[in-house]
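ESCALATION

Customer reports they have been waiting on this structure for their group meeting. Please prioritize. Original submission:
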Amino acid sequence: MPRIRMLIALLFVLIPLGAITTPGAANAETRIALVIGNAAYQVGGPLNTAANDAGLIAQTLQAAGFDVVGARDLDQDSLRHAFRDFVEKATGAGPDTVAFVYVSGYGLQLEGENYFVPIDAKIAHDSDVPSEALRISDYSRPLAALKLKAAIVVLDAARANPFAKSGPPLAGGLALVDPEPGLLVAFNSAPGTVAPLGSRMVPPMVPEISWAIRPVVRQARIGKNGAKLLSRRTR
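Update from on-call: job pushed to the front of the queue and completed.
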């Protein structure tokens, strides 16, 4: 069931938002991707699947014709540079570009914003989150403003986390936010919930994401009304 739900979720997000491209148009488009897997966290121990998940997604995107920048186990400075460089790359790529971002690791929500956590983060209190983690909207908003052919962000980061154990607890999972026009966003779990940590090397949702990339991204175009945010619970 989780395999089917994840596939349906991705198809539902991408297909209705634009017209189907012709084969000629698909060949002309530029495809770029940023894929990050953070596993070697200094607090709470390593995540068993994050780097492997990112590797599978990166391989599938490359097979689909994407110019992929892949990275793993990024500290705060390296993580911010990776996102900044990708936005600059998308800026220079032109409007006929599909930009795909996938991050796997720990994600946090605070005051309605979503954050992705670098491996060296030291988050003892909720007040540490803005300075220790990367706020996704700081980079998704500039990406959406470029009016690309498609901009897709997958946050595989709604996990039970070991941070902010002193003071008020952090809200679980990721926050439901209104997406910027021109941006597609998918979570690995419903807003405010966390996905179960699987013991297998690659959990069921990741093969379905990689399987869905090839036929769906080829067809995705952003309509004038912008994008919708879709998340589905993975049980």
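Sent to customer with the following note: Residues 1-9, 11-26, 199-204, 214-235 have pLDDT under 50 and may be disordered.
Escalation resolved.
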